[in-house]
Amino acid sequence: MKAQFPIFDICKLSRCEQEDIFISRLAPFLDKHQNLLLSHKHTFYHIVLFTEGAGSHDIDFQRFLVRPYQIYFMGPGQVHSWSFEGKVDGYVVNFSTQFFQSLLLKADYLDQFPFFNGNVAEAVIDLSTNLHPLILDLFEKLVHESETVQHLRQDMVRVLLVQLFIQMDRLSFERPVHQATAYNYTLLRNYQKLVEKNYTSLKLPREYAELLFITPGHLNALCHEVLGQSAGEVIRDRIMLEAKRLLTNLSLTISEVAYQLNFADNSYFTKFFKKHTGLTPEKFRDGLFNQLSQDALSLQ
């Protein structure tokens, strides 16, 4: 297998014109970066609003149909690819993990937004018709700021992005998944943050319940109520996602992937992976790169 999943940073995409922020209309961006149709990873935050187009896009091994006025959010490290049909346009915004640090004292400010929590189901949002003018106006202002040289331009871009995040966050609370009390939702988000930081070392719900000062039963009931899955499944899904991401890196052996995920041995990791996917890690990796090779040939 010679195919590799490329990893892009903002500098590669913008020729280092802007190292921390990149804003563009989507059509010219795609024309310039045809290679981004293939599976790849980002080292930065990535936002796209489609205003026209069809086809599909994959984020962390989940497929979504492209629709006008659909917006999606991605964080660093996620695996992504596109398969478009016909003309596609909209807006793209890429920004580094450091972009907001000079403006906001709260280092984890972005962590509060559900669309940046790594759960892909939260990150792809179809905008209701009444929101089209508001969100479109924000993106137009972002493009305008990126194309002009004005005093405090970068800070204006940051302010516009924060407005976008808050508007989308308010929308997320209108969804059924968030019809929980403010206390329960905050508790759930804290659990998800703990899992994100500790999934390789803490693999039992009771360990997280102890950190949250609640009982394992309370934690499990909360996850069932809001997410429709058990607390254990939240941990398992995060481990599985990272396993799939690591398997895209051909420089890592299966044993090294198992080690990074803190499995006792390669055999236990293989059994765990096959139980939840129906495939061995080797077969999963073969399938990924066979598809990547086919996609590459289709673009030639």
TrEMBL record:
One of its GO terms (molecular function) is sequence-specific DNA binding. Pfam families: AraC_binding, HTH_18. Keywords: DNA-binding, Transcription, Transcription regulation. The keyword Phosphoprotein does not apply. InterPro entries: AraC-bd (IPR003313), Homeodomain-like_sf (IPR009057), HTH-like (IPR037923), HTH_AraC (IPR018060), Tscrpt_reg_AraC-type_HTH (IPR020449). Residues 189-287 form the HTH araC/xylS-type domain. SUPFAM superfamilies: Homeodomain-like (SSF46689), Regulatory protein AraC (SSF51215). This is Helix-turn-helix domain-containing protein. It comes from Rhodocytophaga rosea.
